[in-house]
Amino acid sequence: MKVKVCGMRDPENLKQIAALQPDYLGFIFYKGSKRYCQETITPEQLAELPTTIKKVGVFVDETTETIVEIARNYKLDVIQLHGHESPRQCQEIKDAGFEVIKVFSVDDRFVFENTLLYERSCDYFLFDTKGEAHGGNGIPFDWELMRNYLSPKPYFLSGGLNLENIKHLDKVRPKPFAIDVNSGFEIEPGLKDVGKVKLLMEKLRVQS
C-alpha cells in the first residue's frame, strides 16, 4: 500500500518527511487552506526531493490554465482536484501530461455511482470525509461504506487516519491503492510529526 503525506508547507519539515521515503508528498495550492504552501515552499525546494517521491499539487475549483502553469513551474507529477471539477477539466489536465486524482467527500448518503463519470478522465480517486473544510478535517468516515465502491479504479483512502485506526486497514474492502495522511500526523496545521510518520511507515512495512 502506497503512502501519501499531504499538506506540506515547512521547508525543513519537508526535508525530514522526504527522508522517510513516502511514495507521494502533497502540496496545497488552495489559498483557503491553513496548509497553503505557495508562500513558504519554492519550486527549487521541490526540485531537491528524491525522484522516487511523486509530487502532488492539490487544487480546489481552480482554472485549468492556472493549475497547469503552477504544476509546470513546480514540476509536479500529479494533480489532485478537491472541488467541483468536471470530468472535462480532469481530462484537460490529464492531456497536459499530469496524473489526475479526483477527490470525493463521503458520508452515509454518498452515491458511489457518481464516480463513474470520471472513470476515463482520472487515474485515481480519493475518498475523504465530508466536512467543513476541503480535506484535513481529521474526521474518519465509516470504512464499511467502501464496500459500495465497485469500480476497478485504484483509490486513495483518506479521512482521519492515525496510528490507531491504520491497524485496521487490512479490513477495508476493496483494498486501497494508497492512504493519504494529513491532520492525524501533525503537530500543527502544515507541520508534520516526524516521529509519527516514521512509525506509520514502519507499521505499514510490517503489515505488507
Automatic annotation (TrEMBL):
It catalyses: N-(5-phospho-beta-D-ribosyl)anthranilate = 1-(2-carboxyphenylamino)-1-deoxy-D-ribulose 5-phosphate. It is an enzyme of class 5 (isomerase). It comes from the Bacteria. The keyword Cell division does not apply. Its EC number is 5.3.1.24. GO terms for molecular function: phosphoribosylanthranilate isomerase activity. Pfam families: PRAI. GO terms for biological process: L-tryptophan biosynthetic process. Pathway: Amino-acid biosynthesis; L-tryptophan biosynthesis; L-tryptophan from chorismate: step 3/5. Residues 3-202 form the N-(5'phosphoribosyl) anthranilate isomerase (PRAI) domain. The keyword Repeat does not apply. Keywords: Amino-acid biosynthesis, Aromatic amino acid biosynthesis, Isomerase, Tryptophan biosynthesis. Coiled coil: none annotated. Transmembrane segments: none annotated. Belongs to the TrpF family. This is N-(5'-phosphoribosyl)anthranilate isomerase. It comes from Pontibacter fetidus. The lineage of its organism: Bacteria, Pseudomonadati, Bacteroidota, Cytophagia, Cytophagales. The gene is trpF.
